[in-house]
Write a structure and sequence with these properties.
By secondary structure, the chain is α+β, with helices and mostly antiparallel strands. The chain has 22 helices and 87 strands.
């Protein structure tokens, strides 16, 4: 700023008053003289302020007269978003445009390709490209002191393309078997990267890298070929023609030139010739009839049928280079037939005899034709060309003599023979099966297999089951209407030749009648012990009793089955076999009678503990043998055993053979407890090792022990019937009603998830139906969209969807197909995605978390990222060291591990993650939906570092902070083709759609921020060092909530853009992410009742306030908190209402007084508690927390927590009595009236008429008034009973004393109590007593 001269007069008016020079006042208006700046230019009033450029600061712009605020550049634009350039060709300068003030600096990232420059003053981009460059995106930043603007420019630099390619000759002629060549082509323009030819040249001819061609041709050919020269700038092509030239034929001859053949004899001669590729043969004149000339090789073959004298024939061989010929002579002779005869002169036959080759024999010439007289009987045939008699006799006849003549041009010969045909006795009649199981009221048709003569009549012994009959053709048909036991039937077939019998076993099952027999008159039952479902999956298996499932709809827990000729009943708990109460025992005995029959020999397996059932069985008429083992089941009608047994394979074979041959079996047992420590239910659970035969499968689900035995189960509650109904509905058009469809769904939904695919009789029709109706495609939709698949809308479709789920989860890798729903989610793989193999190093030391972190998935399989992705349906090969087999190492394909079967609407397939146990050094794995490939490690493993080879996988975008090179990330890794990516560090990994990270330029800064957030959570909860890497997976749909905790913790994909946006996270945070990670830090013993959704919010409040700098949630707004606290205390501070936000208020008040440190300290105490100090139950948990938080703050917070309704014990108050009470807590007076705590009440200075009452006010409460009541008797809390009182008034914390005088003298015993009162009530102390001093008397 400068001061300039101003030619203005300033008139200053001055007034002289009382000898003083002063300014104008109210009483006068003095004259003011203007300063004449021409006269007095240096006067202060003759200067003015003038602004120059140097007066402007760095964020201002000088206009010429003043400084204005600088405007940042905006809308930066080069007029082009992408350019394509060619190496060596100068580009047209790109000049930027923008709004606002001019940039002072220009930057570009990454650096421009070689040969380009960015003018740092003007921002102009110019230059001549030197090298090729693939498509790259460049970010240009124009900046001044007010801010910056950016834009992007995509640049591709291509090579100079080749312009033309030509060979010297357009046709390459190659003589067969002689070397030929074609010189390399002449190429103009850019240098090609490679030369290729299409199609492939024939064997012997080679195409070289420089385009030259040479070799020896061995075949005839005339073909066109295209040669293409390419580089990344373009391509050109040319064509040439390859034509083969054959060699000239030479040396044509036969073995000899004169041939004599017998008529009808087969002959063949073939010429010999040198040369190649004869393309035509000819002969003149035409050969005799019966001989033919083979034009492919010049040979002559056939049977001459006419005689002829010697004749000359010329054979000529030709190709394009010439021809050669030779002459031969042919003569044909004819011989007469002589000594004609057949081996047998008399044929004595029966109907049905097969005469296949009744052949004549003769000498001399070959007969030309044959004759017979009279005609043969029906069924037999005479071949007039060969004289052979063949056929099957069909009718009776007596002896007849037949004459036969054999003729040729040389003469004839004849012979005779006789034939007689007799009737055939029935024989060789059988049935397609030896045993037939028929269903009552269902039409059947069983036809015999008759390979003998016609049968005139049929009969059967004994009579067939009611409703069946034996038809005239021997077919057993009809509709059986009564169930039967197994019986053997003898079927007689008769004709005039005799009789024949065959045997067949038949039984008729009526499963509804079986259920009625077992349930008639039964009532509801209450058994001891929780059962597993007994799934009646066999064709002849059926449910008997249902109960409510623990996690499912009603489940069958008692089921029966017909097994071969035997019967079986399965109970869902071993304790149920012997009954229990009167109703239960009655049913158990009824089950024995159904399975074993009346007065049966019943065996009880060794070690079952069923001894107590012996008396009931014997009272019911049975004979009981104890201690039976499966190796000897002789003399038994049935066996009582357990599903969960120790039987060997031999034992199981003995049991199934016993059943199939007619024995009975009752088994009981559950598998839910077994499955806690075992795997492969279908094959390893003992009872299921015979389930393919018995048709009863024990599931690992559980149910309650109240069983409905009152009602006959619905027909469709049988899995076999339900499967047939699905087939009829979907393939035969026999639509189920809505109610029946629901029953079918309920029946099969508890089966498909547990039964392995090798139970073919269960799965066959279901798989066939799925294959014929097509697999389900579930439309992708975000959380808020009403799209996808609606569970329950079509129950049959739900069943088939479960079948698809089972197939994709259970099929071996080489049978997995790409499921079409993967296109919707998790996404497609480009068709040209390269498959790779990679040796991945894995850290096998993974402790997991202590199980007390109950919401964290503490002992989940730990996922070790590989940076690889499996394409849907691809077989991935895994190779691992032998020492790691069966050591808790897994391959996991897929990251979206939430099971969605409990959702009403599906936005993706319910299960799309596949786990593969590594049980061999080389295994095949896969996933029908594709997914990231992880190596899974069981929590608690100490396997050290190891390598694993993964083959046929696809590269996925994968960034680990401090490990991945940022340049490599930007230029390559983030563009890898897999649809899902991982961004992470050694503390936290996010699984996100690859589309969200393609333009992520700052993963290092982003993960630094997340590491800080995760580290703050670990520190807040005090469990450090945290022993595992936390994971967040973003899914189109999750099993519960907006997000949920666990390993990994799950969130919706709608959150991804914010979570990856460093600016957003830094400025706004994400309460939900912090909240779910907080759940993972909740230690169960320190998580108070009702606090599941409370203490996890420690993390949300802490990070939102201390990391982000905002409140983050309306629920922590002071007004909401005040309203909530008021409502809680107005309602009496009922601890049953203390949860979530109200509970959080309790902790936040403490935090606001002492900070987070005491909360961290109190939480940390629990991690090292010995087992006997870990609180158990609500009361212990409330009291333990009060103790730990009080010790952490150094104040007795028992009154504070008791105000909130904590059920504190006296032990807690006493345990904290050494600490001062927090008497300044904000609840006091505002929300809650605290009672006073008075302690250490004593007397002193006792005299004949006075005493000092002493006490300690440990807590002065809220607005408390203290009174002392005293008298010669203790009146307790009855004010009216006390003769004297004194109002001490308000009290303070500390030791106090009050003198009582005017007492009765000398040995009078007094009692006193202290009462403290406020508006909320009165508290009384325990009494004290003393006697007045009588020493003065």
């Amino acid at each position: 700023m400068v001061t300039t001269y101003q030619s203005t007069l300033l008139i200053v008016t001055m007034m002289l008053t009382s000898g003083c020079v002063g300014l104008t006042n109210q009483d006068s208006s003095p004259d003011v003289d203007k300063v004449d700046c021409n006269i007095n230019p240096n006067h202060n009033d003759c200067f003015k302020t003038e602004i120059i450029e140097n007066d402007c600061n760095s964020k201002e712009v000088f206009t010429g007269t003043y400084c204005r605020i600088m405007v940042r550049p905006e809308n930066l634009n080069y007029g082009e978003k992408s350019i394509l350039l060619i190496v060596g060709q100068e580009m047209q300068n790109l000049t930027p445009s923008f709004l606002g003030d001019g940039p002072e600096t220009w930057q570009i990232n990454p650096p421009l390709p070689d040969g380009f420059t960015l003018d740092s003053n003007s921002g102009v981009i110019s230059g001549i490209p030197i090298n090729t460059k693939e498509l790259s995106r460049y970010t240009i930043i124009a900046r001044n002191n007010a801010g910056f603007s950016t834009t992007t420019l995509d640049i591709v630099v291509s090579a100079v393309p080749p312009k033309s390619i030509n060979y010297d000759d357009e046709v390459l002629y190659c003589v067969i078997d002689i070397e030929c060549n074609l010189n390399k082509p002449i190429i103009q323009g850019g240098i090609p990267d490679k030369l290729v030819i299409f199609p492939d040249l024939p064997m012997g001819i080679t195409f070289y890298k420089n385009g030259s061609i040479s070799g020896v041709l061995g075949i005839e050919i005339d073909a066109n070929y295209t040669v293409t020269a390419t580089n990344n700038g373009g391509l050109v092509f040319t064509e040439f023609r390859l034509i083969s030239i054959p060699k000239i034929p030479s040396d044509l001859n036969f073995i000899n030139n004169n041939f004599t053949w017998i008529k009808y004899d087969f002959v063949k001669i073939t010429p010999l010739i040198n040369g190649s590729n004869i393309n035509s043969w000819s002969i003149e004149p035409i050969l005799p009839q019966g001989l033919r000339f083979i034009e492919s090789d010049g040979s002559i073959e056939g049977k001459p049928i006419y005689i002829q004298d010697s004749s000359t024939y010329r054979i000529t061989a030709s190709n394009s280079q010439g021809a050669i010929f030779t002459d031969i002579n042919i003569k044909i002779l004819d011989l007469p037939v002589v000594e004609l005869a057949y081996d047998v002169l008399k044929l004595d036959l029966i109907i049905g005899d097969n005469i296949s080759f009744f052949n004549p024999k003769w000498e001399g010439g070959t007969p030309v034709y044959w004759e017979i007289s009279p005609e043969l009987p029906e069924g037999l045939f005479f071949n007039s060309g060969t004289g052979i008699i063949s056929g099957i006799t069909l009718q009776e006849q007596d002896w007849i003599i037949y004459s036969i003549w054999a003729n040729n041009s040389g003469g004839s010969d004849s012979t005779i023979f006789s034939i007689r045909i007799l009737n055939q006795q029935p024989s060789n009649i059988s049935w397609p099966q030896e045993e037939y199981i028929l269903e009552s009221n269902k039409s059947i048709n069983i036809s015999p297999l008759n390979f003998g003569p016609d049968i005139e009549s049929w009969n059967v012994v004994p009579n067939l089951p009611s409703g069946l009959y034996l038809s005239q053709n021997g077919t057993i048909e009809g509709i059986p209407n009564e169930r039967t036991n197994w019986d053997e039937y003898t079927v007689w077939s008769n004709n005039t030749g005799g009789s024949f019998f065959s045997k067949i076993w038949i039984v008729v099952h009526d499963l509804a009648a079986d259920q009625f027999d077992l349930l008639n008159g039964m009532d509801a039952t209450d058994w001891g012990g929780w059962p597993s479902p007994i799934l009646p999956i066999g064709k002849w298996a059926f449910p008997i009793g249902f109960t409510e499932g623990g996690y499912t709809s009603d489940i069958p827990v008692i089921s029966g089955s017909h097994v071969g000729k035997g019967k079986m009943i399965g109970f869902g708990h071993e304790g149920w076999v012997t009954g229990g109460g009167a109703e239960e025992t009655a049913f158990s005995l009824r089950a024995v009678n159904w399975v074993c029959g009346k007065d049966a020999n019943v065996g009880i397996s060794f070690g079952t503990g069923f001894e107590s059932f012996q008396d009931e069985l014997e009272s019911d008429g049975h004979t009981v043998t104890m201690g039976i083992t499966p190796d000897d089941l002789s003399n038994l009608d049935c066996l009582l055993d357990e599903f969960w047994n120790g039987h060997s394979n031999s034992d199981n074979n003995n049991i199934t053979e016993f059943l199939l041959s007619g024995g009975g079996l009752i088994m009981g047992g559950h598998a839910w407890y077994w499955s806690y420590s075992n795997s492969d239910l279908s094959h390893n659970y003992p009872g299921n090792k015979i389930a393919k035969t018995t048709g009863l499968f024990v599931s690992n689900e559980w149910g309650y022990d109240t069983v409905n035995l009152e009602n006959i189960p619905h027909l469709l509650s049988r899995p076999y019937a339900a499967i047939e109904a699905i087939t009829s509905d979907r393939l035969d058009g026999q639509k189920l009603s809505e109610s029946d469809a629901i029953i079918v769904d309920d029946t099969l939904s508890i089966c498909t998830g547990v039964i392995s695919l090798d139970f073919h009789s269960f799965w066959f029709q279901l798989r066939q139906t799925v294959n014929l109706t097509g697999w389900t495609v579930i439309e992708y939709g975000t959380l808020w969209q009403d799209v996808g698949y609606n569970i329950g809308e079509d129950p049959i479709a739900d069943v088939l969807l479960r079948v698809e789920d089972a197939l994709t989860q259970k099929l071996p890798a080489n049978e997995l197909a790409s499921h079409p729903s993967h296109v919707e989610f998790p996404g497609e793989i480009p068709d040209n995605a390269t498959r790779v193999s990679r040796l991945v190093n894995i850290n096998g030391n993974q402790s997991g978390l202590p199980s007390e972190f109950g919401y964290s998935g503490a002992q989940s399989i730990l996922r070790m990222s590989t940076g690889l992705y499996a394409a849907p349906g691809d077989v991935i090969d895994i190779t691992i060291n032998q020492s790691l087999i069966n050591q808790g190492v897994w391959i996991i394909i897929g990251t979206h591990s939430d099971n969605l079967w409990d959702k009403d609407q599906l936005h993706r397939f319910p299960n799309i993650v596949r786990y593969w146990d590594i049980n061999e050094p080389i295994i095949e794995v896969g996933n029908s939906f594709g997914g990231p490939i992880y190596v899974g490690i069981n929590a608690g493993s100490v396997l050290g570092d190891f390598d694993i080879l993964i083959s046929n996988a696809i590269n996925a975008p994968y960034f680990i902070n401090k490990e991945t090179n940022l340049t490599d990330w930007i230029e390559n890794i983030r563009n890898f083709p897999a649809p899902w990516a991982e961004i992470g560090s050694d503390m936290f990994i996010l699984s996100v759609p690859s589309s969200e990270i393609r333009n992520l330029n700052n993963p290092e800064e982003l993960m630094d921020w997340w590491d800080q957030a995760i580290g703050m959570e670990h520190s807040l909860y005090g469990f450090t060092p945290w022993p595992r890497v936390e994971r967040a997976v973003f899914d189109v749909q999750i099993s519960a909530g907006w997000m949920h905790s666990g390993y990994p913790f799950m969130a919706h994909d709608l959150s991804v853009p914010d979570v990856l946006n460093l600016s957003h996270m830094s400025e706004e945070g994400d309460w939900g992410m912090f909240h779910e990670l907080g759940h993972n830090h909740q230690w169960m013993p320190s998580t108070l009742p009702g606090n599941t959704e409370t203490t996890c919010n420690f993390a949300s409040v802490y990070l939102m306030e201390d990391l982000v700098g905002v409140a983050g949630h309306g629920a922590v707004d002071p007004q909401q908190r005040e309203s909530r606290i008021s409502s809680y205390f107005d309602d009496g501070s009922n601890i049953s209402n203390w949860s979530v936000w109200t509970a959080l208020d309790t902790f936040l008040i403490i935090k606001e007084e002492w900070g987070w440190a005491p909360l961290t300290t109190a939480l940390s105490v629990y991690y090292d508690l010995p087992a006997y100090e870990v609180p158990s139950g609500d009361i212990e948990e409330f009291n333990a927390w009060t103790m730990h938080i009080s010790n952490a703050t150094g104040y007795n917070l028992a009154p504070y927590h008791e105000a909130w309704g904590f059920p504190l014990t006296q032990d807690t108050f006493e345990g904290l009595s050494h600490l001062p009470v927090w008497i300044d807590d904000p609840l006091r007076g505002e929300y809650f009236l605290y009672p006073a705590i008075i302690r250490l009440i004593t007397t002193s200075n006792v005299s004949s008429d006075s005493v000092d009452i002493n006490w300690q006010t440990y807590d002065n409460g809220t607005d408390v008034v203290l009174k002392i009541y005293y008298g010669t008797s203790d009146s307790g809390a009855q004010v009216s009973g006390w003769s004297n009182s004194v109002n001490v008034g308000a009290i303070d914390v500390g030791n106090e004393s009050y003198n009582l005088d005017g007492l009765s003298c000398c040995g009078t015993q007094y009692y006193a109590r202290i009462s403290t009162s406020n508006e909320d009530g009165t508290t009384w102390s325990e009494p004290i007593t003393w006697s007045t001093d009588n020493t003065n008397n």
